[in-house]
Amino acid sequence: MRAKVTSVDEFLASLDPPQRGQVSALRRLILETAPGLVEHIKWNSPSYVHDGVDRLTMRVRHGAHPVQLILHMDTARAEDRQGRPVMPDDGGLVRWVSDIRGVVTIESSMLTGSGTDLSRVIGRRLRTR
Fold first, then answer.
1. Which fold has domain 8-127?
2. At a CB cut-off of 8 Å and minimum separation 6, what does 50 contact?
3. Where does the YdhG-like domain start and stop, copy by copy (predicted)?
């Protein structure tokens, strides 16, 4: 199990090189898509605050598990696991687990070039209330 860290830079330094590269690329894409986000560590992973609310959190597990990006609305809003997702996902990148929480399993191809599809999902998520 990874030691508890207090900054995203510490978090990155704790990763094995292959994961570090993927997480760094995802971090860049997130911050380029929405430069005003506040980045911090929450739930022992990089998390991104928009308008005072945690909205995006990486799930990075040790070993061969894929990196995932969790789209959420912090914990203040109740989830409806049977509810319709609060935002459309035309590209099919998001696996919705409730009306307000979705999971994107990150593939390397999503982080190359402009990352347009993933950037679109991130931008749309941050505009969704």
1. Aspartate Aminotransferase, domain 1 (3.90.1150)
2. 34, 36, 37, 38, 56, 126
3. 20-73
Domain ranges of the chain: 8-127
Crossing angle of helices 17-33 and 116-127, in 10° steps, is 60
Please check whether residue 29 is in contact with residue 21, taking contact to mean a CB–CB distance below 8 angstroms. no
pLDDT of the chain, 129 residues: tens digit per residue = 456 889 999 999 999 988 999 999 999 999 999 999 999 999 899 999 999 999 999 999 877 789 999 999 877 788 999 999 989 888 899 999 999 999 999 988 888 766 688 999 999 999 887
Torsion sign across C-alpha atoms 30, 17, 105, 52: negative
